[in-house]
Every structure is written in C-alpha cells, then in structure tokens.
Amino acid sequence: MQNTSSSGQNETNAGPTTHFGYKTVAEAEKAAKVAEVFHSVAQRYDLMNDLMSAGLHRAWKAFTIARADVRPGMKVLDIAGGTGDLAKAFARKAGPSGQVWLTDINDSMLRVGRDRLIDKGLVVPTAVCDAEKLPFPDHYFDRVSVAFGLRNMTHKDVALAEMRRVLKPGGKLLVLEFSHVAKPLAPAYDWYSFNILPWLGKKVAGDEESYRYLAESIRMHPDQDTLAAMMKEAGLDRVRYFNLTAGLVALHEGVNLG
Ligand SMILES: C[S@@+](CC[C@H](N)C(=O)[O-])C[C@H]1O[C@@H](n2cnc3c(N)ncnc32)[C@H](O)[C@@H]1O
C-alpha cells in the first residue's frame, strides 16, 4: 500500500520509497540496486561510454576539467569517480604538491579506476565511500566534482549538502550529469535511448537491463533549473549551469562562500 506522508514523500508499509529508473523501490533498496548495475558494467564501462556517446563524453569531461581550473597544490575530491577520467586530469593539474582523491561507493568501478591511473603513472588516494556520508573533514577541498553520479544517489539533497560541507570557503563544486535535452530533439533521443542503448548494453556489456536503467534514470533526474535550485538549497552560491550538446548533459557549478 502506498501513502503520502506529511513531508510529501511517498511511503509504503516498508518505509519511504524512491525511484530506481521508472520503478518505485524502498529507499533502503536503491543503493544495492545501483551497486548491482555498476558491479555488472565496470569492466566494459569505458568502452560503453565511448560507444554510447560516440566519444562525446570526452568533450563534456574536458569542459568540466577546464571549468574546474585545478591548479598546482590544490586539494580535489572526485565523488562517484568510477574509472577515474576526472581524477586523472585533476591529478596531473594539481601536481605532486596537490592531493586528488578518487572515490566511489562501488569497489568494482574504483578498482578499474585505480588501476587505470596506476598504468598512467599516477598514484592517488582512493576510498570507497558514499557521497551521502563523506569521510572528510569540513572545509577541506578546493574543488569537488561528481560526473554522472548524482543521478544514482538516493538522497541527492543530503549528498549535495555533504559536497558543500567538505568544500573550503571559496571552493567550487562541479556537477556533470545527463539533463533535459532541447524539446525538438527529444523524440529522436528517446528512440535512441530506449532502443539502441539497451541493445548496445546487451551486445557489448552483456547487460541490457543496466542500460535500460541508464535511460530511465536520466528521465527521472531533475532538470537544469531544478538541480540549480537544489544546489542553492544545499547552501551553494553563484550557482550556474552550462547546457552541453543541446542539454543532453549539463554542467552545474556552485561555490561555497562559507
Ligand atoms: C555512471 S558512473 C560515473 C563514473 C565517472 N564519474 C565517469 O564520469 O565516468 C556513476 C558512478 O556513481 C557511483 N555512485 C552511485 N551512487 C553513489 C553514491 N551514493 N556515492 C558515491 N558514488 C556513487 C557508481 O558506483 C558509479 O561508479
């Protein structure tokens, strides 16, 4: 049975519920379901990213890296860092006097990321951690980034508040995420997402369901203005966003003014 609580949150007899793609699941179950997805796709994740986006994810990340403006000596936290694309670039920019953490809730993804960085001669601290409970002190980092991770988090408001908490005054948060595409492109994008993506997932990663979840979770994610409002609500200032590839993806930024 489903009720709506006074806070407006949906609840079943098993407690509060949330979205897992288009499915409604108990909040307590979502993290485990997301974990299944990323344990399953970890080994083929990078190849799938290139195939699904025709390489565009590299340009979206390059824009994020440029906007992050990481300088030598900076402390940087990459949350939901997975296979380490952002951490790799940040580590090169922060240099030996800096400190770049590659973190993720999923040890399969993190292991692939850590090994990739080591292969490039970069040894960075890595930690399995949940963005909703970051094991770092207040005001520690100059930059915090999360790329294609926020969408998977159960309590996005809690995660955003944690990201702000660990930022130094003047530090910047960068959130790169799928967003809401310009209306004229929506029909073609929907067709691609619900036909080609699961097919590619099946052929390349042997996992159709995880890529169906990807398509659904993108549709359930807050649009550009809603996410900007959530970042302000979490205490971030100077919040702005950039639409990339007609809003298929958006980069949101916010600063902790303390
Ligand atoms: C689509 S991958 C993105 C990986 C990488 N940032 C990139 O852009 O290629 C999403 C990542 O979010 C991680 N994730 C999901 N929920 C998380 C949470 N609550 N805390 C930290 N990481 C989480 C997953 O384990 C997964 O590695």
UniProtKB/TrEMBL annotation:
- This chain's protein is named Ubiquinone/menaquinone biosynthesis C-methyltransferase UbiE
Q: Which GO terms describe its molecular function?
A: 2-methoxy-6-polyprenyl-1,4-benzoquinol methyltransferase activity; demethylmenaquinone methyltransferase activity
Name the chemical reaction catalysed here: a 2-demethylmenaquinol + S-adenosyl-L-methionine = a menaquinol + S-adenosyl-L-homocysteine + H(+); a 2-methoxy-6-(all-trans-polyprenyl)benzene-1,4-diol + S-adenosyl-L-methionine = a 5-methoxy-2-methyl-3-(all-trans-polyprenyl)benzene-1,4-diol + S-adenosyl-L-homocysteine + H(+)
User: Which enzyme class?
Assistant: transferase
Stated family:
Belongs to the class I-like SAM-binding methyltransferase superfamily. MenG/UbiE family.
Key word Methyltransferase present? yes
Sorted alphabetically, which keywords does the UniProt record give? Menaquinone biosynthesis, Methyltransferase, S-adenosyl-L-methionine, Transferase, Ubiquinone biosynthesis
Extract the InterPro entries matched here: SAM-dependent_MTases_sf, UbiE/COQ5_MeTrFase, UbiE/COQ5_MeTrFase_CS
PANTHER family in the record, alphabetically? 2-METHOXY-6-POLYPRENYL-1,4-BENZOQUINOL METHYLASE, MITOCHONDRIAL (PTHR43591:SF24), METHYLTRANSFERASE (PTHR43591)
Species of origin reads Pusillimonas minor
Say if the entry is tagged with keyword Metal-binding.
no
Q: Which residues bind S-adenosyl-L-methionine?
A: 83, 104, 130-131
Main function = Methyltransferase required for the conversion of demethylmenaquinol (DMKH2) to menaquinol (MKH2) and the conversion of 2-polyprenyl-6-methoxy-1,4-benzoquinol (DDMQH2) to 2-polyprenyl-3-methyl-6-methoxy-1,4-benzoquinol (DMQH2).
SUPFAM superfamilies in the cross-refs: S-adenosyl-L-methionine-dependent methyltransferases
A single GO BP: menaquinone biosynthetic process
Q: In which pathway does it act?
A: Cofactor biosynthesis; ubiquinone biosynthesis; Quinol/quinone metabolism; menaquinone biosynthesis; menaquinol from 1,4-dihydroxy-2-naphthoate: step 2/2
